Amino acid sequence: MCKINVNYCNASLQELWRSEELDNHQGGVILTINNLYGSSTFKNRDQLVCMDWETGQNKFIDKVPASDNKANLYAEDLIVSKDNRYRINST
After folding, report:
1. Which CATH code of 3.40.50.150, 2.40.50.140, 2.40.10.480, 1.20.210.10 fits the domain covering 18-90?
2. Cα-atom radius of gyration of the chain, to the nearest Å?
3. Over the stretch 2-44, which tens digit does the pLDDT of each residue have?
4. Residue 72 dihedral angles phi and psi, to the nearest 5°
5. Measured distance CA(72)–CA(70) in Å, rounded
6. Other CB atoms closer than 10 Å to residue 5's CB: what's the count?
7. Could you tell me which residues come within 8 angstroms of residue 73 by beta carbon, excluding any fewer than 6 positions away?
8. How far apart are alpha carbons 30 and 40 in whole angstroms?
9. Is the pLDDT of residue 88 over 60?
10. Residues of 16-44 as b/e, b for ≥16 C-beta within 10 angstroms?
């Protein structure tokens, strides 16, 4: 994650943390309070990854039975993943 520092006409990026655990390809990520959720594509293939938003530390990695192309949705304290075969899973 990067922070954008702006000082009048100058801008710079500061890297706050980096992780290869969440390598989201498509479907986006979800930010809730201090948790970042997303579907991993390569390193943790077909798994739902939860990371701490501020530190980038893993909170958990959960196997989600679906393909690598997932669309994620957050509603009423549930994370719902839909894959390209139209299977729906909730966590």
Report:
1. 2.40.10.480
2. 15
3. 999 999 999 999 999 998 888 877 767 899 989 998 887 777 7
4. -110, 145
5. 6
6. 10
7. 30, 79, 80, 81, 82
8. 13
9. no
10. eeebebbebeebeebeeeeebbbbbbeeb
